[in-house]
Design brief:
mainly alpha; extended; 8% strand; 42% helix; 347 residues; three-stranded mixed β-sheet; two-stranded antiparallel ribbon
């Protein structure tokens, strides 16, 4: 009887603890196999080290442990974030190869949510011959849109047009009269447009612009492949998103500035860079063809804001110096409550 009770307890323990654990480990392993199943079978290059986390969730819930990932796997590793297989890249040299290798190593595309809204066949999602064909088809519209009549702002014409419909259900003869009035207005607009410029010459100019304009960069490549820099052989193909959300991490590991955690605005003054070993070591506005077009405007705006803030008021942090977090962007944990006092004798 004692042996039977002991066997029952052991079987219950296996069913309630060990079996679910084995099923969970099997699910994690199958999830990792599924995530990396999109790689090119003809390519024998290894994937970057890393793990895909929990099934469906990936490692999104563990986003704050990215520094532990760097210590374990290095500056290049695979993971699963925000519902998509991801390869994280950091370090000035690695980021440099990515930013300068667009359309060679990687290509930019819209997020999955945007692609769902715009559609897979939208102009920004096409590439190569399909993209060229769509641009060629849409080129004549730049001419025809100026020929077609625009908004009807002529009140007298609107009154005359509305007079053609005396009732809610006009008869066929009244509809024909209305059509004649509309056609006459369209012909008048066309004659005015034709008198202003030569449409055929304008069409040739527009076609020449479209013909010699390079295609926009927001388009996926035929095969999405991401090279693991120096440690990963060239030609690795992997169905995933390459997210450059590691700019802050790149700044942390760069050797351009010493004592990065100290507040020292003078380090950004011209000529004060301590070690300008790479222009990709500090890239708050991106780099390469993806450099922010408004970075100079942003710099001027921040300078003016800082000068006016210092000149016109004083402030006090209610909770003292805050603790900062950097995921996914830099922000204070307490929302930085601040009390401002205006200077009344400002110059």
């Amino acid at each position: 009887l004692f042996n039977m009770v002991l066997f029952t307890l052991f079987a219950t323990f296996l069913c309630t603890c060990v079996l679910p654990l084995l099923l969970f480990l099997a699910a994690v392993k199958l999830w990792e196999v599924y995530c990396i199943s999109g790689r090119d079978p003809s390519c024998k290059s290894p994937l970057p080290p890393g793990s895909m986390g929990l099934p469906f969730l990936g490692e999104t819930l563990q986003y704050k442990f990215l520094k532990m990932k760097v210590q374990k796997y290095g500056y290049i590793y695979k993971t699963h974030l925000f519902g998509s297989p991801t390869v994280r890249i950091m370090g000035a040299e690695n980021v440099k190869q990515i930013l300068l290798g667009e359309h060679k190593l990687v290509s930019v595309q819209w997020p999955a949510s945007v692609r769902t809204i715009l559609g897979a066949a939208c102009l920004s999602s096409l590439h190569d011959s399909e993209h060229k064909h769509r641009k060629r088809v849409s080129a004549p519209f730049s001419v025809t849109k100026h020929v077609l009549p625009g908004p009807l702002n002529d009140q007298s014409f609107l009154k005359k047009l509305m007079a053609c419909w005396p009732g809610e259900t006009p008869s066929f003869s009244i509809g024909l009269k209305a059509r004649n009035v509309i056609h006459a207005k369209i012909e008048e607009n066309i004659r005015k447009k034709m008198a202003k410029r030569d449409t055929s010459d304008q069409f040739k100019d527009n076609y020449g612009k479209f013909k010699h304009t390079p295609p926009p960069p927001l388009r996926p490549p035929p095969h999405k492949y991401y090279t693991g820099m120096k440690s990963i052989p060239h030609g690795l193909r992997f169905r995933c998103d390459l997210r450059l959300q590691s700019i802050c991490d790149t700044h942390d590991i760069a050797e351009i500035f010493s004592k990065k955690d100290e507040f020292n605005p003078d380090r950004f003054m011209e000529g004060c860079l301590e070690k300008d070993s790479s222009r990709f070591g500090y890239i708050p506005f991106g780099g390469g063809s993806r450099s922010c077009v408004g970075k100079e405007f942003a710099k001027v705006l921040l300078k003016i804001f800082t000068v006016e803030l210092v000149r016109t008021c004083d402030w006090e942090l209610l909770n003292g110096p805050p603790t900062m977090k950097t995921s996914p962007t830099v922000y204070p944990v307490d929302n930085l409550p601040t009390k401002f006092t205006e200077f009344y004798d400002t110059v």
